[in-house]
Amino acid sequence: MKWIFAGLILINLGFWMWASWYAEPAGSRYAPRPRPEVNAQKIRLVKEEGVVLKPRPADRQPARALTDVAPPKRCFVIGPFATQDGARQARSTLASQGLGAVIQEQFEPTTVYRVFIPPLSSVRDAEAMRRKLSRLGFDDHAVIKEPGLENAVSLGVFSVKANADAQLGKLGKKGITARSQTLSRPITRHALIVKSEQDLAAILKRQDWGSADVAVREAECETPAARAGTPR
Fold it and tell me: Would you say 227 and 100 are in contact if contact means Cβ atoms under 8 Å apart?
């Protein structure tokens, strides 16, 4: 019996300790809090007359308008100029008008006509022929050293076939047998590249570039890697 009585005492002591040590103190943050009072007279429905909705502030800046984007560059080609000096002078003219430009070399194939005397037996014979040509009034001549034409004598390279034929006729009248040879050679021309955000075609075409061969055209703006020629 005494053991039953002792057990009841221990159980009661355990309940008292739990109630005293582990009970939630007054004012604890875990204690349930009263709900805030609702003012019913201030509540309005969204569709109620007189209610003005205020937008929430945006977390980030709005996207830029399309008008803020810079317009693309436009490129204009002026040329060709026969010499680099002509291109430089034209660039100076543009600079005086507030327009920048770069000079670009352009290599174009062209057909020329060389008049020559067929190869002679030796260099001495070729030099003897040159002295004879000088006595006959032909001053523009040189010994050719190209493979297959060693010891031949050139009498000029002409860009117009009619001029080459005229030279052959003059040589024939002096008793000199010569031939004409068609060659393809690259020639170097120069152009100006102007970049602008505006349409300058009309303004550039009114300029006097010093030659009727010089024209103005709009072209696609190329990257440096894809650009032909060498800018200067």
Answer: no
CA angle 112, 117, 123 (to 5 degrees): 120
The DSSP letter of residue 231 is B
Based on the fold, state whether residues 130 and 165 are members of the same structural domain. Answer: yes
Q: For the full predicted model, state whether its pTM sits above 0.90.
A: no
Q: Domain range holding 198?
A: 74-108+187-219
B/e letters for 25-60, b = 16+ CB within 10 Å, e = fewer, are eeeeeeeeeeeeeeeeeeeeeeeeeeeeeeeeeeee
Do 114 and 103 sit in the same domain of this protein?
A: no
Residue 41 lies in a domain: no
Long-range pairs for 155-160 at CB < 8 Å and ≥24 separation? 155/115, 155/116, 155/117, 156/114, 156/115, 157/112, 157/113, 157/114, 157/115, 157/183, 158/112, 158/113, 158/114, 158/115, 159/110, 159/111, 159/112, 159/113, 160/113
Please tell me whether residues 104 and 115 are part of one structural domain. no
Whether the ω angle into residue 80 lies within 30 degrees of 0, i.e. cis, is yes
Whole-number pLDDT of residue 127: 96
Q: Is 38 among the domain residues? A: no
- Supply the CATH number for residue 166's domain: 3.30.70.1070
The whole-number pLDDT of residue 74 equals 85
- Structural domains of the chain, count: 2
pLDDT on residue 227: 46
Q: Are 158 and 167 in contact (CB under 8 A)?
A: yes
Helix, strand, coil percentages (3-state) for the chain, rounded to 5, are: 30, 25, 45
